[in-house]
Amino acid sequence: MVKRRVEDPGVLHLNAQVRILSGLAAGDDDVLVLLGAVAPCDVPGHFTPDVALLEVAATALGLACPPGSDPLEYEGLTDRYLSDQMLDGRTLRYRTQYALYAAACLGGGLLPDLLREAGAWEPRLWTYAVSAVVLYTRAAADRCEQTVPDIAVRIAEQRGLTLTARPPSIG
To answer: At the top level of its lineage, which domain of life is listed (predicted)?
Structure first.
């Protein structure tokens, strides 16, 4: 039996962040396309990119709401910034909301109990975290009067990441 070489979790963490931000910087803010870009970083039983993506979402939220600025109103947030997504069904809405709240917690310095709250989810939390990244990046672009690609580059700079031209799966 041939053993598959498994990448280091730290490398997978950074790769997930680079992949989603590279896609956004290239002008792809479609959640389904970005899911495909990040999917290779999900290695069941070894690594899931939940925290990696929530960190990116938290950084985007920080750009949308720098200290001293008006906060984002949660009411209508998904309608404004995820209008291209059909968030039908209570479970889908709840899980997307959880990802949005978890990113806000991380940005505020509180580490949510992701394993207890979302560890058994199928699909996994990271799939909802992609929506949080897109929503908060779009909100930052709107509030900063910049484009989504510009905000993606700013997020990468703040996180010390070097973006690729386009993630391989977006091609």
So the answer is: Bacteria
- Alpha-carbon span 20 to 38, nearest angstrom: 6
- Could you report the per-residue pLDDT of 103-123, keeping only the tens digit for each? 999 999 999 888 888 888 888
Q: Which pair of tokens denotes residue 88?
A: 């039908």
Nearest to 81 by CA among 31, 39, 156, 10: 31
Spans of the chain, pLDDT less than 70: 1-6, 165-171
Q: Report how far residue 102's alpha carbon sits from residue 107's, in angstroms, rounded to the nearest whole number.
A: 9
Distance CA 112, CA 120 (A): 15
How many helices (H) and strands (E) in the chain?
Answer: 8, 0
pTM confidence score: 0.91
CB 83 within 8 A of CB 155: no
